[in-house]
Amino acid sequence: MSMICALCVVKQATLRLSYIINACIALALLSTHYPYIELLLALAIATHSWLVSKQNNWTMLSISFVAALTFLILYAANWLLGLPIDWLVLATLVLASSGYFMDEDPPNDTQSEIAVNEHALTLSPLASFPNRMQLQNYFYNWRDNAPHMGALVIIRLEGFAEVNQHIGRDFGDLLLAQSANRIKQLLMLEEVVSLGDSEKLAHLGGLNFAFICSLDTQNHLHEQLIDRILGATLKPFNVANCTIEVKARASYVKCGKGDARFENLISYAYLALDSQPNRQIVAYQQHMMVEQLEQQARLKELAGIDFSSELELYFQPVVRNEDEKIEFLELLLRWQHPKQGILSANRFIDDIRIAGLAYPLAEFVIERAAELVMALRMEGIKMPLSINVFGPEMLNEEFISFIDQVFTEHQLLPGDLIIECPLEVFLNLDAQGKAMVARLSSQGVKMCVDGLGDSPVWLAKLPNLAVEYVKVAPSLTTDFSQQGHIRSLISGMVEMHNQQNSKVICEGVETQEQLNFTKSLNAFAAQGYYFSHPLSSVGMISWLKQWQIEHS
Hints:
This protein has helices at about 1-10, 15-30, 35-55, 60-80, 90-95, 110-125, 130-145, 160-165, 170-185, 220-235, 260-275, 285-300, 305-310, 345-355, 360-380, 395-410, 425, 430-440, 485-500, 510-520, 540-550; strands spanning about 150-160, 200-205, 210-215, 235-240, 240-245, 245-255, 280-285, 310-320, 325-335, 340-345, 385-390, 415-420, 445-450, 470, 505, 525, 535. By secondary structure, the protein is an alpha/beta fold.
């Protein structure tokens, strides 16, 4: 019965057979008393102990050793003291108890092979590249052997999220390895610090790679290498019968002959990459660390900010070119910072989004704008107000419902509120986002595209922007005297939107010459310091009345 219980616990076939053999020999010893059967039991116990020794289970091995020792003692007692031979069965009972300490099955050959293959897959295909720790060790060796001037360069590959989504993670890893090998081939120079076994490029994890370049002989060698690397990554890859293009960005930080710590250099290079996401090559500058510390301080301050007491709305007019009447007033957010003074929205709006305050802030601005519309109406002034929404996260069901609630509570009329969004928000709208824009328009909210010209744009998408207003960025109108070669392009864009019944507004107008230039483009309106600097909304009513008197 003891052996049967052990068989229920043990799952290894060889051990189960051993327990059965020991049980049978023990029963034969009790029932038949054949000569030399006790020697068979001794052999079975010894064989079982040998099998247990292969399981790497010290508890079972110890109990099996005790069983063997028990057998020897009882066998000696049988010969010397005449102890009945049946007592030898006690050794098999001790042996059976070892089965209850079988924790788990040791891996068989197939399982071991699978584990090895999985391990190999985990390491492949970037296992041959040195890791971050190896890069650190070789950096210190290179620096400590002799004083050097050098640069730590980080290469970040981009676009692999879409690759993994469309052709699979395995092909994405293969493409990543191919990209890294292209980079590695360009680093076979004596000035690039070796990381052992002729390796020059280290894999920092994810899509980030790094190398160390000595600048003892050439001060700008690292910049030349970066240009070559970025050029090489632009060449298409052929993976899984698909032609794929990969983008790359790079940052670098120079390391002098002092005692700069490797971890600091790595963090500086990452900081440079993250602080300038729109630039392909970024050099670390000291002010980046200062800006990061300022941002961290602002985030702490934003955690306890009181919108009503610390934030204020300023305004700036948008003036029609035809009759110099005000088309609407744009509301501009300002933060009355206790230490840095009045901060414009572009100084802290990213911090607002990081702190998770984008939606509450939008509610505050919309409520305040609705109150200003009502205050103007009580003074007999009908003047639309525009507010800025900086991200696509606002175009959701909750935001639309809130707008509808504000219109109802404040009895706003269609056209009283205008929402301005950056151009990239409109160009990247999905079907749901377009439906949300259509719902806003149906509620009486006019839409304005802001920043046309700030960044490259796919011109084929421009005619699809069915909005009320389109703002042309100051970069296209400020230095108009030097932009004769693109004048026809700007004029064509204005005319295209005019045909789409979108009113074009030129921003950044500061002089009469710039205003004349915008009028020559047949733009609908202009905005800028030529008309007014941003002013506090506290004096909005008085300013509007004065404007009407001067331009009546």
